[in-house]
């Protein structure tokens, strides 16, 4: 069959592929510890689920406006504005089923053949995919361990130019957990203004940051509101990955175009899901703080455990719920290490190369799982890796 160029180079998302393989092993009776997929291990907070269920009972099961319920757009505008110290109008908010549409559709609206798009490598695989579908030119910028996994600003300066139509940022980042420091954001903002580039700032992990460190947003810097799309959502903060609810915040004229794309593709987001989202944002936020405290404990346990394994070096991530340990000392590919950890140790992790070629030599482990499972996983990882180093001398 002949497919259009648009889909020819698309790859599956590694997390889903490893999950499928892990489930195969489970079907054969193996007890696998899942550190591959990025979602909280606890259920959606009860008051949120109850509100969604009540909405279904109440008949809120019909179409809603394509850009989202006006009441939800208003609540998002206030919440997102307050958290970043900026003014946001409800008309700038476009709600979608998950944060992914808020990445994909603005890219489709802005990028044409030959437009260059800068994005982090290693980075969330959807960035490269959506640039490919839009016909843009992918320009990955390495994020390096020695720079705290922030954008390599020297490399960025070499790559940004007048053809750069879009710069994609992700802070805190998947897969490294790094937060882009304000100085780097100011530098990137100056380049975006100089070269008249748009910025997509994927802030889906903005509320999952540790050690009381704030996560600055590029959208709050002078002149950036008019050229920034903030991407955020409910999946990670409120454990709502399967509800499918997220949003983008962008200048109103872009929001209108993005809404048209939504209208003709998705139609609209489930109405009862949006009502559950209202409950999430207007309810008590203490639960989010409790989750963050719990994740910080899990992060610390996992980082300490990984660094105790000979040959593994792991930085302390500042946000999200991933560690990104360096396993290059074992002298074999991270894909092979990930394979051994699953096949021989029943621990599912992702190779860093699932997030781009600069992920070579790293693994991604999600620590959104219980301390008991983290401890057990660390024991198994240590065993598999000690056999690996014995083989490789
Ligand atoms: N952006 C990043 C950096 C992510 O890690 C994810 C999910 O893993 C998303 C966006 C997508 O979020 P959602 O499931 O709400 O579409």
Short description:
With 393 residues, the protein is α/β, with parallel strands linked by helices.
Keywords:
alpha/beta; seven-stranded mixed β-sheet; three-stranded antiparallel β-sheet; 42% helix; Aspartate Aminotransferase, domain 2; globular; binds pyridoxal-5'-phosphate; Aspartate Aminotransferase, domain 1
Spatial strand sequence of the major β-sheet: 2-8-7-6-5-3-4
Which molecules are bound in this entry?
pyridoxal-5'-phosphate
Number of strands: 12
CATH topology of the largest domain: Aspartate Aminotransferase, domain 2
CATH class of the largest domain: Alpha Beta
Specify the biggest β-sheet: 7 strands, mixed
Question: How many structural domains are formed by the residues?
Answer: 2
- Beta-strand share of residues: 5-15%
| Secondary-structure element pattern, one letter each | HHEHHEHEHEHEHEEEHHHEHEEEH
Structural class per helix/strand content?
alpha/beta
Specify the CATH architecture of the largest domain: 3-Layer(aba) Sandwich
Choose one word for the global shape: globular
| Helix percentage range | 40-55%
